[in-house]
Amino acid sequence: MNQRIARLLATMAALVVTLLALGGVSLARADDLPTFRLEMNNGKLNPARIEVPAGKRIKIEVHNTGTNAVEFESLQLRKEKVLAPGAQSFVVISPLQPGEYKFFDDFHQQAQGVIVAK
Predict the structure, then answer these.
(1) Integer angstrom CA distances of residue 33 from 20, 50, 90, 91
(2) 72, 39 Cβ separation under 8 angstroms
(3) Residue 94 domain flag
(4) Which of 73, 75, 87, 101 lies at a CB distance of 3.0 to 4.6 Å from 83, suitable for a disulfide?
């Protein structure tokens, strides 16, 4: 019985090590994504046009540099992210086909932007 438990524990330990190793690979890959910075400030986007490589996952860092809450939203990309004043976060976007993808600040409708995949 003790040998069975020892084998079971050894198998579980090997599984945990494998899962941790795979998780580490995933985290390293997230850091390797092409990253683009977007500042949102009380109804203004900087830049309002973001050119990205087509066919690659990308990360957009969203920074709210304004004094009001903002919401990065893209219906085409099915992404939305609400940020309090001074907050920052990011969205990861799956590989895009070449083309233009609109985004906007849902709290400031005049703030319209476009992601251009080339």
Answers:
(1) 21, 15, 12, 11
(2) no
(3) yes
(4) 87
d(CA 97, CA 95): 7
Would 91 be classed as within a structural domain? Answer: yes
Angle of CA points 32, 35, 40, to nearest 5°? 155
Domain that holds residue 85: 35-117
Give the CATH number of the domain where residue 55 resides: 2.60.40.420
Q: What is the pLDDT of residues 77-109, one digit of tens each?
A: 999 999 999 999 999 999 999 999 999 999 999
Task: List the alpha helices (DSSP H) in the chain.
Answer: 2-31
Report the candidate in 97, 16, 25 with the shortest Cα–Cα distance to residue 56. Answer: 97
Contact 51, 118 (CB under 8 A): yes
Angstrom distance (rounded) from CA 72 to CA 66: 13
Name the pTM for this structure: 0.72
User: How many independent structural domains does the chain possess?
Assistant: 1
